[in-house]
Amino acid sequence: MLFNQENYLQIKQACESKREIEFIAPIEITAFSAESAPREWTAYPPCILPPQGYAQVFVQAGSDARGALIKLELVVHLDGGRILYKAQSKDQVALKVTWPAPLNA
Q1: Within 13 Å, how many C-alpha atoms sit on residue 94's CB side?
Q2: What does pTM read for this prediction?
Q3: Which of 30, 40, 60, 96 is paired with 68 by a 20 to 30 Å CA distance?
Q4: What distance in Å separates the CA atoms of residue 26 and residue 67, rounded to the nearest whole number?
């Protein structure tokens, strides 16, 4: 599934429901726009910020596709999820959202 305007709501709902999901994003809207994405699934958690730092990121991220992806990544991280990244092609990055297993499972 491609991260775009048509699929964004479905991807966002999966993340809000803490369901695992994989999708592909154009490399130019990711943190890998100026460098190579990893060849194997690799986590890149955001840096540790105080609460006001995350608030600043949400305000500054913007409302374009890149801003939407940044906000989604931060929400997943703040909700305890993890995002793995892997090069899909020279123009795309695959993202895999995972969640820890429940303790009573």
Answers
A1: 12
A2: 0.88
A3: 40
A4: 13
Mean pLDDT, the chain, whole residue set: 90
Q: Detail the DSSP E strand segments found in 1-105.
A: 21-26, 42-43, 82-87, 92-98
Q: What's phi and psi for 82, nearest 5 deg?
A: -140, 140
Tens-place pLDDT, residues 34-85? 888 999 999 987 776 777 788 888 888 888 999 999 999 999 998 999 999 9
Separation in Å, CA 54 to CA 4, 57, 75:
24, 5, 10
Bridge partners of 86?
A: 94
In 3D space, the residue among 78, 68, 74, 54 whose CA is nearest the CA of residue 26 turns out to be 68
